[in-house]
Amino acid sequence: MAPVPISLIKVGHIDDVQELRKAKPTTIPERFVRDRTERPVPATTLSQSSSIPIIDFSKLIKGNKEEFHNEILQLAAACEEWGFFQVINHGVDLNLLESIDKTAMEFFMLPLEEKQKYPMAPGTIQGYGQAFVFSEDQKLDWCNMFALGIEPQYIRNPKLWPKRPANFSETVELYSKEARKLCQNLLKYIAISLGLKGDVFEKLFGVAVQAIRMNYYPPCSRPDLVLGLSPHSDGSALTVLQQRKGYSVGLQILKDEKWVPVQPIPDALVINIGDSIEQVLTNGKYKSVEHRAVTHKEKDRLSIVTFYAPSYDVEIGPMQELVDENNPCKYRRYNHGEYSKHYVTNKLQGKRTLDFAKTQASNSNKESPLSTPPWGNHN
Fold this sequence. Notes:
The protein is of the alpha+beta class and 379 residues long. Helix content is 27%, strand content 18%. It has 10 helices and 14 strands. The strands form 3 sheets. An 8-stranded mixed β-sheet has the order 1-2-10-7-12-5-4-3. Strands 6-11-8-9 form a 4-stranded antiparallel β-sheet, with no helix packed on it. The chain has a two-stranded antiparallel sheet with strand order 13-14. Strand 8 and strand 9 (258-261) form a beta hairpin.
């Protein structure tokens, strides 16, 4: 089921970017051409002054007291100053990273008619296609997506799980289980970095919602005119991004009003703070940061993204420990399902979705409880 009636959404014709690439058009279709203010700037003008922080997960898991203390401080600084970090020695089997990468690429390389057996219908966020498109004149991203709800079980849509490649379901299950474990552990240490009990988020989240999205960015003959993925912050609590070696560098984050490219570290995973951590748990202390993806003229790029968020039926708001006279409450309490519905039924627009939760917007933004979860109810 869709979070909004499909019949009310008219998205017009959406070209498949892989098919466009095969056709080698002399010009880029107008729906992909961004306004001048949105276009990527030349790489030479990007901020290259610093790299996002690196967290050594092994020092949190089994480091001595001094190593643990130092890494917790590094983690706190990364969450507060950047909202992004790369985690090394994360414990996810490297062979599994290779397997999910290979499996995802095999899916995207299938014939178009095979992939279209699993369509992402307008207003939904599972299946193959482009998400967050709500009008016929909306600019499109130079990207093909395939997304699935993972946990809890009721958000899964079995009809959208591909039969090809043969090992797709098994690999996604294994990878998602490891990604979930990593998110749970990271949230424990993020809580500790805030001076909270390590299990506070686990108790608050209930049965956490988890989803996976695979993004494939074909080369583009005019990367200066298009975006691979529009600027946005994530509606999750944590996001885990896998961008493997050998592909082009496409992820950029907005730091001090400048776009900073994220250079992948071999075998590392990129972690970013989502809106739920910023607005709910930390009262704005830890930041969900605007980010986007750009394309390359000759190289393609594949990313695999795990989203981890509180249960739809929990009510969340700033934690009392992080609100005082010097840090007044910035966000209202709300049902997380309401925010998730608000997020997935609006196009990607930087951090505008956070306005939903700000205290000054509470009266105008109150909505009724969510009858259908954003990822769908497929019981």
